[in-house]
Amino acid sequence: MVSIIVKPIAPKTPQLTSEVYVSMTSSRKEVATAGTRVPLAAASTPCKLVVITAETNNTGNITVGGNTVVAAEATRVGTPLAAGDSYGFNIDNLTKVYIDSTVNTDGVTFDYFT
Question: How far is CA 94 from the centre of its chain?
């Protein structure tokens, strides 16, 4: 059993409450083609919390959101992250979380908790 207290790690990150989680899993996801949203998980992946960090070597912005996320600045929908920025939030399944980027092959690392 893993017990953590999640605190804001970037100005865009909301205050999250303390909770005991059973497990933590780390992974990464890349947007192969800028402007093409991709889910963090293709198959159902239940969770309680996810913390997403834009990779530090990204040259563009990553935008995090639902299935309507758009990274392009002129039509952006979602929460933009510059290289190294993090965003954490409570959600029940990783298939509901999408990322898009402004540059091909930019990506994120993420930790999710159950």
Answer: 9
* Mean predicted confidence (pLDDT) in 8-18: 56
What pTM value is reported for the model? Answer: 0.84
Distance CA 50, CA 7 (A): 13
Alpha-carbon distance of 86 to 68, in angstroms, equals 20
Domain annotation for the chain: domains and CATH numbers: 2-113 (2.60.120.770)
For 9, the 3-state DSSP assignment is coil
* Nearest-angstrom CA–CA distance, 57 and 67: 25
Q: Which two tokens stand for residue 114?
A: 């159950």
Q: What's 71's DSSP letter? A: -
* Dihedral angle of Cα 76, 78, 82, 85, to the nearest 10 degrees: 170
